[in-house]
Amino acid sequence: MRHTIAASLNDTAKLMEQLEFFSIPSPCIGVCTANSKGYCKGCLRSREERLYWLKMNDAQKQQVLRLVGLRRQKIQRLAWEQGQARVELPEQMGFEF
Predict the structure, then answer these.
(1) pTM (predicted TM-score)
(2) Could you report the per-residue pLDDT of 70-85, keeping only the tens digit for each?
């Protein structure tokens, strides 16, 4: 049993090394239009997040992706609260990030 746990931990460490080897892709989906606050309507990144993406390290990129996920959740929650059948873009909902 002890050998199995050690082997699993070793495999996990190797996997983490492999994941760090690959760069984190941009969340851009090609809908490059900003709302009045400067957030992209496609990927929900701020102006600064879009501008500096290529200069960010992986930890910074992961933080941006986490923020994008939170923004998307807010939009979906607001749409649900307003009883909308589909999620509208932030500017159309009057949503302020």
Answers:
(1) 0.64
(2) 999 998 888 888 886 5
How does pLDDT run across 31-76, given as a tens digit for each residue?
999 999 999 999 999 999 999 999 999 999 999 999 999 999 998 8
Q: How far is CA 4 from CA 1, 8, 9, 29, 92, in A?
A: 5, 6, 9, 42, 54
Alpha-carbon distance values, 95 to 17, 35, 85 (Å): 39, 10, 17
Cα distance between residue 58 and residue 92, in whole Å = 32
Taking the CB of residue 80, how many other CB atoms lie within 10 A of it? 10
List residues bridging with 40 in a β-sheet. Answer: 34
The closest of 55, 48, 52, 93 to 75, measured between CA atoms, is 93
Copy the structure tokens of residue 30: 């090609």
Q: Which helix H or strand E contains 5, and what residues bound it?
A: helix 2-21
